[in-house]
Task: inverse folding
C-alpha cells in the first residue's frame, strides 16, 4: 500500500514526482498501527518540498547541494512517536522510510 495516499492535487503530485518509487521498511510499516498512511504520506510530502524535519542545519545545507548535484537527500521526523529517516537516493529512483537503526 502506498504511503502517499494523502496526496490528492496535481500540484501535490508534481511536488512528489522526483521521489521515485516509495518504499517502507517493515519496521516503519509496523509503526502504522499507531499512526496512519496519511500521516506518513504527509512526511513524504514534507520531504519532497524541502521541509526536512529534525535534521541539523549542516545536513539541510547538504540536502540543498544534493538537489543541485544529484546527491542523496535525507529527512528526519517523528512518526508514531519514533524517529524515522526518509532518504531519496541520488539517482531519484527510490525514496525509503526507515528507522535510523536500519541504515
Result:
Amino acid at each position: 500500500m502506498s504511503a502517499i495516499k494523502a496526496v490528492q492535487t496535481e500540484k501535490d503530485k508534481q511536488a512528489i514526482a522526483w521521489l521515485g518509487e516509495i518504499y517502507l521498511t517493515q519496521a516503519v510499516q509496523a509503526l502504522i498501527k499507531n499512526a496512519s498512511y496519511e500521516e506518513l504520506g504527509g512526511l513524504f510530502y514534507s520531504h519532497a518540498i524541502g521541509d526536512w524535519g529534525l535534521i541539523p542545519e549542516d545536513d539541510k545545507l547538504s540536502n540543498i547541494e544534493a538537489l543541485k548535484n544529484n546527491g542523496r537527500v535525507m529527512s528526519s521526523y517523528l512518526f508514531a512517536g519514533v524517529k524515522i529517516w526518509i532518504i531519496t537516493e541520488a539517482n531519484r529512483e527510490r525514496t525509503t522510510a526507515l528507522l535510523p537503526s536500519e541504515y
Q: What stands out?
A: Residues 57-69 form the longest helix (13 residues). Residues 10-102 form one domain.
